Amino acid sequence: MNTSNHSRFTPRGLIPTREQTAIQLAQDKVVLVDANAGAAKTTTLAIRIGEALARNLAPELILALVFTPEARDVMRERLIDVGIPRATALRIEVATFEDFAAKTLKLIEGDVPQRCAQAKDLRKYALDAIEQVGLSFVGKVEYLDLKTHNIALSQFLDVQLGLKATMALDGDFEFMGVEEAAAILNVPLADYLTTREFERIRLGGFEGPLFRGPYDATYDLARKLGEDVAAAAHMPAYRVVVCDELHDLNEAAFRILNALLARPQCYFIGAGDKDQVIHSKLGASESYLKRRFVSSYPALVRYPLTLSYRHGPHLAYAMAQFKRKPVDSDLPLHTEIRHSHYEDSADACAARVVEAIGAWRRDKLPLDGCAILVRDRHQSVAIENALMQAGIAYRTGDMPGYLQREEILFLRGMIAIALKNLGAVKSDAVRRAIVESLAIFGEVALTPSQMEEAKKTIARDPETLSYFFSGQLQRSQAEGVRDQISDTVAYVEAVDPEAKADLVLSEICARMNLETLAKRIYVHPYDASVVSKSVAGFIAAAAKSGFNLRQFSEWLGGAETLAGQKTDKHRVLLECVANAKGKEFDHVILPFLEAGEFPSPMFAQREEENLFYVGATRTRARLTLISPQQEQRRSPFIAQMGLGASLARANVAVANNSARADVAKPKRHDLKVAFADKNEVKALGAEWDLARRVWFVAGDKDLTPFAPWLPR
Predict the structure, then answer these.
(1) Which three-class secondary structure state does DSSP give residue 625?
(2) Which of 16, 418, 659, 673 holds its CA 20 to 30 A away from the CA of 35?
């Protein structure tokens, strides 16, 4: 690499900070950037790429790696934003780890297996694997509980993803019993055995894998690099590799990076924030940023990115206090931090959410810039109802609305049985989902084909739901469960439609022993607890309405119609915090900030802190914190922000930033120069930007001689 210590690339539209310039000019083999939230990580990496281009590096020798398609698109946009010509930017390979791995595997294997991009595409193979596990192990190992409903399949797919991302599946288990291996891996025995069989099916082809699901290419390439030394020879020889969002790195991706960096002439720069590690289920860990890179590359150099370009000093200093690290902002922006309180009920918290949105509207600010980020999905029940009652349009993003969740669909199915009105549910897809949820919570031993036939038949002819119950739903495997569901069905079939809805729902839950049932259905205790809280919120909504069963059913139909409207673009986003990482909003509302809710006692404190940090730092203009009236019940995270202590300092910083912004001058002026004039402008002192392919004049030069070439 050229060791000249002055920048040759001047980004368009911004003046790099000293931190960014240091990263732009870094010449070390391995560079790690410790970046804060909103610190322009992607832009800084784009500037670093611009510098490489300005030093005559061919675009084809540069690789930019990210973890999601969204991050890939943002990286491509930033390359152009900083001034790299579009034609040049398109020659730079910008890829997710998964896409890069798939491309490299094609070079090694010479073939492209079927791509199963979504979990639903894996359903057939997962069911085949479960069936084979049953044939091989039922009766031979104890406590083997094989289920084929959607919840079980979803849990299995999560387990196998985690095992692959951490490369744990490649452990030495050959001479170990399957029960012991599952215990060491800390996964359910059924999911471990199914994963082994699933992989045997997937990799069983003589000419390579039969198919690849999400993240399988990353896993397969990492495994191949470990098993076959010659495989590394197929890795493209890049001179510069950059990686964004390095806090999402897992073992499989780390092994691929190591293979790329093994090339002597390859230079690496990666940016991440150890305080944004929230995907531990997929193998993400702060250990990579803190220890693993250092262990593999002792000579690496670290650079900070402390300045936020998303929010102003008020939030920056609060996050500095919260995370006990340097955080600052050069923006002349007062990011408001509002704090409101509620009494005991979830409805009271939801009312504060509506008030916060009302204040935003009164300021004439757009609803689609507002996001309500909840810690757990059960918290959305009261909020969704409050939004509907207030006439505030909303969308739920990756988190399904509460009326579409399995536990609520089960209760809606019970109401439909009581009123014999499944036909009142207008959506065919929702009717099918209700049938499946009834079977799941009824623990009915239906084969996948029987389940599909039942859903298809009943969705087409809702009146047949009662026959399904008498003929199928009471065929649970365990006698106790069968008696339980029979008793519950008999109760709802005889219930008075004028009975209070909340009392009927409470009786259904009591007869089904729903809390214990959830613990049997959901592998993880956390998921079972969320289901129980979600059901409690649904019953509370029924109680608040005062409706009888018939009225409540009609209200549900109207609520589903309102929630399903997709035409209004001006809608608030209601989403789980974990799904908001990598996004930003003008106004973020964090409700239910109380002990036992956020932080959740079922997860490590460190990861809960990271989750709160991610949620709070998504905002640009306003952050609204909503917590209990009683101080002792509030989330400890609020006190950790030290809001009062940093207020005066933040006010001064905003004033200083405004003053600096007023006197800031451009670092350079781009010129519009015809090819025939290039020698003339060069003689006058203009310089050529190789990366952006334009002539420019330094900002401190007299522009008078260059007037003919200045843009109008």
Answers:
(1) strand
(2) 659
- 117 within 8 A of 214, measured Cβ to Cβ: yes
Tokens of 556: 């549900």
Q: What is the pLDDT of residue 664?
A: 57
The type of residue at 258 is N
- Weakest mean pLDDT among 265-269, 501-505, 569-573: 569-573
Q: What is the pLDDT of residue 1?
A: 47
Strand pairing partners for 240?
62, 267
Write down the pLDDT at residue 524: 82
Q: What are phi and psi of 209, to 5 degrees?
A: -60, 145
Contact between 624 and 610 (Cβ < 8 Å): no
Judging by DSSP bridges, how do beta strands 687-689 and 694-698 pair with one another? antiparallel
Pairwise CA distance, residues 184 & 201, whole Å: 24
Name the one residue in this structure whose structure tokens are 């690849």.
212
Reduced DSSP (H G I as helix, E B as strand, rest coil) percent helix, strand, coil of the chain, to 5: 55, 15, 30
- Coil, helix or strand at residue 628: strand
Q: pLDDT tens across 59-76, in order?
A: 999 999 999 999 999 999
Nearest of 380, 641, 351, 316 to residue 359 by alpha carbon: 351
8 Å CB contact between 492 and 417: yes
Q: CA 268, CA 242: separation in Å to the nearest integer? A: 6
Cβ–Cβ < 8 Å for 72, 248: no
Strands (E), 536-610: 572-576, 585-590
- % the chain with pLDDT above 70: 95
How far the first Cα of the chain sits from its last, in Å, is 38
What would the pLDDT profile of 181-206 be if each residue is shown by its tens digit? 999 999 999 999 999 999 999 988 66
pLDDT value at 2 more than 60: no
What's the whole-model pTM score?
0.87
The answer to whether 178 touches 193, Cβ cutoff 8 Å, is yes
Long-range interactions of 559-562: CB distance < 8 A, separation 24+: 559/385, 559/388, 559/403, 560/403, 560/425, 560/426, 560/427, 560/430, 561/426, 562/388
Rounded to the nearest integer, the mean pLDDT of the chain is 89
pLDDT interval class at 336 (50, 70, 90): very high
Show the DSSP H helices in 363-447 as ranges. Answer: 380-390, 406-419, 428-441
Are 357 and 589 in contact by the 8 Å Cβ rule? The answer is: yes
3-class DSSP assignment, residue 100: helix
CA distance 339 to 590: 10
State how far the Cα of 187 lies from the Cα of 523, in Å rounded to an integer.
Answer: 9
Residue 471: pLDDT over 80: no
DSSP string, 301-359: EEEEE-EESSS-HHHHHHHHHHHTS--EE------EEEEEEE-SSHHHHHHHHHHHHHH
Query: Quick one: average pLDDT of 592-607?
Result: 93
Residue in the block written with tokens 């398109």: 90
Half-sphere CA count of 631, side-chain side, radius 13 A: 1
Residues, the chain: 712
Q: Give dist(CA 707, CA 712) in Å, integer.
A: 10
CB of 48 closer than 8 Å to CB of 40 = no
Q: How many CB atoms lie within 10 A of CB 426?
A: 11
Given a cut of 80, is residue 529 above it in pLDDT?
A: yes
